[in-house]
Design brief:
By secondary structure, this protein is an all-alpha fold. The chain has one domain (about 15-70). The chain is built from two helices and no strands. It has helices spanning about 10-25, 30-70. The termini are far apart. The mean pLDDT is about 90.
């Protein structure tokens, strides 16, 4: 699998906590960070999808009401 390097600055506290967690659980640091980013992206994308659905429902209700009054 092709990999790339992502260089970001984070607080030393977070870095230490992640490293300690990975060591304690036998997880590779890069794997953990990649999965954490992937999960966060999926969660944010789901939020956007849910907001889109809510807006579409509101539009559908408005369209039904205007259709009934015509």
């Amino acid at each position: 699998m092709l990999k790339t390097t992502l260089a970001v600055k984070i607080s030393p506290d977070i870095s230490d906590r992640v490293k300690e967690f990975c060591i304690g659980h036998g997880i590779k640091y890069g794997f953990f960070v990649e999965k954490a980013l992937q999960e966060r992206l999926e969660r944010e994308e789901l939020k956007e999808d849910l907001l889109d659905m809510k807006m579409l429902r509101e539009e559908e209700k408005s369209a039904k009401k205007s259709h009934l009054h015509s």
